[in-house]
């Protein structure tokens, strides 16, 4: 039959270590993490460094983590309530800097851009699913002979039955039952790798059965004498290794262990009470076709599959591919973040907005757009209002609204990048007077303060704003843009139109053609932006570079498609005083996509810029995002 602690404790005449001996929660923490979520973790091979890690496996209350920029040969496990894992942003908040992992295989100077590209559009593990680490016991309460469950450090995806072989000050010797010392190790009494009897059953992790060398006493012995023989690695090396190959190190099926809710609340067994029978997942033999070496041992104990991700087979993985996550080099999916602290305007119900997820995606751009627009409709006081701002598009996802006792549907336009998704949403939200509702980065608690001043003096400007190009236009001629159909799918309100006309008349009155360079023929560029056209109202010469520089080649292209050289050109042309810093952008290989992700603190920390140039660059990058370049 399969292994049960109740039967095993009776056979070995042993007692389990009480729960108060361990640095573990009395009620195991819930594991709400998902594969591919990102978090911050200490580099286990360089514990002074905090790195970005990705969840690549789950089992019970543990996470299998892989450091971004590392290969798949150094995965490690952490409990969900470990102090060594934190949400993204914790390191920076506490004045630290994220570091590349030991063995980062790219050039060290490329780390900042690698970091930006890795995090852009990634699913960050939310703060709420992290748990506070439990306190350490006040002293070492372990006694020799006590039983427990322990991580096999040579095969850390395994948790196995073990015994306290010796106690020495704050250290305990963990001896694995039935293995004659091959896997034993010393650890502190407050190690997170040791657990009370029944832990795996409570968390849904799979407990490995003991090895075949378990000593079953013929007559009852005091607990302190049970299994206290010194481990003998040398005398049984061949037998143990053969057994290890056949039982412990074979690849196992990937199966998520689950337990019933009632099981979670079972108290931990203590020496003063009889041990309750614990339910265990039914064990199966190895998968059909799995390779096993012939064994000479009689009646070996059956092996249960673990719920963890199997050990990676790196024999067929090219090193470059293993080193650099594909998401860092290309982003086929997008992720839009919701600003729940921002102004929702007169049309959206703030309470409903608070119930929305923190982000939409990562997913295809068209799907993310559909989710975001549908969320706006669902949160509206009157769905008809939001629906009226939209026009029929082609090739995109379908959204729906219910009003006038009918369900109405509409096709959104096809979009293919986060830039166009944001442009569409900015235009829609501007019409809804709920500016700064969406962004491509997570919002902080005070996000609603960041850009509010940009809207206050120009609240009724339409979603379609006009920005000065090389000179004064005659009639307003829209710039040809492959995404025009997408942007035109958002209607502007009539109030907005009159406001725009009024401001353009004011602009024409203030700026006579004579004040501009002769021969200026380009039209005002139309852009979708959730920002004001304050640039139109600036006095002549207030932007001294605007009329003289030739930006037509750059301005006609999506900034996210710029090359490193074009980014350098943008830096030089934005402000001649920034020219000397342009070479830094080549050194760090910053292309257009990376440029749009830069913040002043990043430029200071990772690129070595001083505060003044960093703030200037941030200003120009923000204008670029708003379509003002």
Q: Which terms would index this structure?
A:
629 residues, alpha+beta, SH3 type barrels, Aspartate Aminotransferase, domain 1, DNA polymerase, domain 1, five-stranded antiparallel sheet, 27% helix, 15% strand, globular, SAM, repeat, MBT_SCMH1_rpt2, nucleus, transcription
How would you summarize what this structure contains?
The protein is of the alpha+beta class and about 625 residues long. The longest helix has 17 residues. It is found in: Nucleus.
Q: Could you report the average pLDDT, rounded to the nearest whole number?
A: 70
Low-confidence stretches: 218-332, 447-487, 493-552
What is the SS-derived class?
A: alpha+beta
Rounded Rg = 31 Å
Overall geometry comes to globular
Which sequence of strands runs across the widest sheet? 4-3-2-1-5
Main sheet attributes: strand count, strand direction, barrel closure: 5 strands, antiparallel
Instruction: Please report the distance between the alpha carbons of the first and last residues.
Output: 73 Å
Helix content: 25-40%
Number of strands: 17
CATH architecture of one domain: Roll
Number of helices: 22
* Beta strand %: 15-25%
CATH class of one domain: Mainly Beta
Q: From the 3D structure, determine the CATH topology of one domain.
A: SH3 type barrels
């Amino acid at each position: 039959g399969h292994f049960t602690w109740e039967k095993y404790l009776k056979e070995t005449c042993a007692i389990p270590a009480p729960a108060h001996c361990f640095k573990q929660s009395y009620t195991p923490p819930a594991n709400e993490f998902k594969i591919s979520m990102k978090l911050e973790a200490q580099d286990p091979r360089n514990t002074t460094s905090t790195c970005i890690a990705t969840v690549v496996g789950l089992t019970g209350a543990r996470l299998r983590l892989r450091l971004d920029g590392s290969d798949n040969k150094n995965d490690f496990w952490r409990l969900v309530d470990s102090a060594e894992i934190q949400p993204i942003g914790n390191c920076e908040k506490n004045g630290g800097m994220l570091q590349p992992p030991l063995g980062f295989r790219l050039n060290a100077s490329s780390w900042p851009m690698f970091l930006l590209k890795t995090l852009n559009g990634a699913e960050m593990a939310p703060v709420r699913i992290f748990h506070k680490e439990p306190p350490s016991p006040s002293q070492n309460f372990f006694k020799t002979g006590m039983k427990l469950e322990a991580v096999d450090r040579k095969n850390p995806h395994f948790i196995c039955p073990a015994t306290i072989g010796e106690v020495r000050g704050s250290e305990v010797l963990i001896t694995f039952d039935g293995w004659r010392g091959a896997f034993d190790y010393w650890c502190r009494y407050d190690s997170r790798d040791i657990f009370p009897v029944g832990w795996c059953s409570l968390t849904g992790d799979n407990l490995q059965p003991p090895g075949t060398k378990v000593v079953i006493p013929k007559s009852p012995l005091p607990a302190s004498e049970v299994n206290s023989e010194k481990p003998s690695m040398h005398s049984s090396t061949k037998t143990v290794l053969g057994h290890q190959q056949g039982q412990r190190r074979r690849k196992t099926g990937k199966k998520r262990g689950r337990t019933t809710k009632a099981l979670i609340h079972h108290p931990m067994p203590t020496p003063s009470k009889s041990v309750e029978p614990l339910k265990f997942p039914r064990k199966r033999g190895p998968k059909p076709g799995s390779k096993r070496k012939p064994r000479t041992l009689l009646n070996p104990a059956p092996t249960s599959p673990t719920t963890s991700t199997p050990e990676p087979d790196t024999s067929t993985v090219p090193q470059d591919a293993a080193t650099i996550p594909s998401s860092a080099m290309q982003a086929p999916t997008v992720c839009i973040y919701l600003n729940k602290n921002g102004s929702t305007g007169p049309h959206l119900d703030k309470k409903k907005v608070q119930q929305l997820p923190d982000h939409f995606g990562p997913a295809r751009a068209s799907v993310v757009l559909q989710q975001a627009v549908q969320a706006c409709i669902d949160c509206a006081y009157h769905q008809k209002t939001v629906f009226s701002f939209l026009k029929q598009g082609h090739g995109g996802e379908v959204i729906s609204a219910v009003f006038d006792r009918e369900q109405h549907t509409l096709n959104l336009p096809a979009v293919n990048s986060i830039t166009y998704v944001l442009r569409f949403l900015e235009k829609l939200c501007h019409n809804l007077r709920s500016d700064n509702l969406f962004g491509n980065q997570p919002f902080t608690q005070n996000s609603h303060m960041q850009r509010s001043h940009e809207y206050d003096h120009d609240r009724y400007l339409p979603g379609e704003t006009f920005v000065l190009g090389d000179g004064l236009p005659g009639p307003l001629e829209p710039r040809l843009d492959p995404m025009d159909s997408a942007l035109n799918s958002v209607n502007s309100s009539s109030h907005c139109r009159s406001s725009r006309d009024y401001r353009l008349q004011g602009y024409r009155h203030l700026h006579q053609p004579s004040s501009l360079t002769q021969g200026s023929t380009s039209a005002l560029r139309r852009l979708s932006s959730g920002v004001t056209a304050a640039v139109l109202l600036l006095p002549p010469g207030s932007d001294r570079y605007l009329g003289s520089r030739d930006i037509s080649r750059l301005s006609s292209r999506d900034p996210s498609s710029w090359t490193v050289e074009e980014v350098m050109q943008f830096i030089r042309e934005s402000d001649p005083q920034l020219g000397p810093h342009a070479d830094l952008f080549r050194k760090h290989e910053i292309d257009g996509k990376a440029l749009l992700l830069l913040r002043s603190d990043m430029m200071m920390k990772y690129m070595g810029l001083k505060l003044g140039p960093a703030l200037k660059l941030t200003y120009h990058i923000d204008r670029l995002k708003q379509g003002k370049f």
